[in-house]
Amino acid sequence: MKKIDVRNLFYDNPAKTLTVLAVEFLLTGLYLAVDLLTKHFIYMPIAAGADDIVVWDGVVRFVAVENTGASFGMFSDAPVILTVIGFVTAAIMLSVQIFSVKIRNGWLRAALILMIAGAIGNLVDRFMFGYVRDWFYFELIDFAVFNLADSGLTVGCVLLLIYVVFFYRPADKKKTQAGDAEER
After folding, report:
1. Is 51 in the active site?
2. Which residue ranges in the chain fall short of pLDDT 50?
């Protein structure tokens, strides 16, 4: 089995590695902040008794829904398990973001930023309230109520799929096998 030299995962210049990661963490933090601010300024007043906010009558409405489950309310009877899964998933994605820093594909970088921010945004809700604060209702098609964190997770997954399908190229097995034979 070939050993991975983690030094090859980062730029030779540590300042470049730290700068790239700092920019990505800043973008993640900005998306997270917008998610939490919308939950505070849109969801909270409605949950406290204010009227729903009708953005476009019959099309888009802001409401307040406590979601103890995952997508579309699935697994609503297992909030602790969902919290653990969310925490582990966020930690794995953050590790991928750090250890793939030299992969400068915009699709991958954007996917990681959105998915990490979305996972953390919903984790903050689960820890603080025991549920996720959903507020965006696309009533034209009676779609499930969601929030910006959910959108980040969904769009991030789509971007990750685009990266994997169109841009990801695993190491050529013949080259790898030839390289292994030369090392022996």
Report:
1. no
2. 174, 183-184
Catalytic hit among 134, 142, 172, 180:
134
pTM of the predicted model, to two decimals?
Answer: 0.86
Tokens of residue 90, six digits: 């966020």
Tell me if residue 181 falls in helix, strand or coil: helix
Q: Is 67 helix (H, G, I), strand (E, B) or coil?
A: strand
Candidates 34, 15, 10, 18; CA nearest to 152 is: 34
Q: How far apart are CA 39 and CA 144, in angstroms?
A: 16
Summarised one tens digit per residue, pLDDT across range 69-112 is: 776 666 666 678 888 888 999 999 999 999 999 999 999 999 99
Question: Residue 97 — φ and ψ, nearest 5°?
Answer: -60, -45
Catalytic residue at 77? no
Q: Rg of the chain's alpha carbons, rounded to an integer?
A: 20
Give me the amino acid identity at 122: N
Q: What 8-state DSSP symbol labels residue 60?
A: E
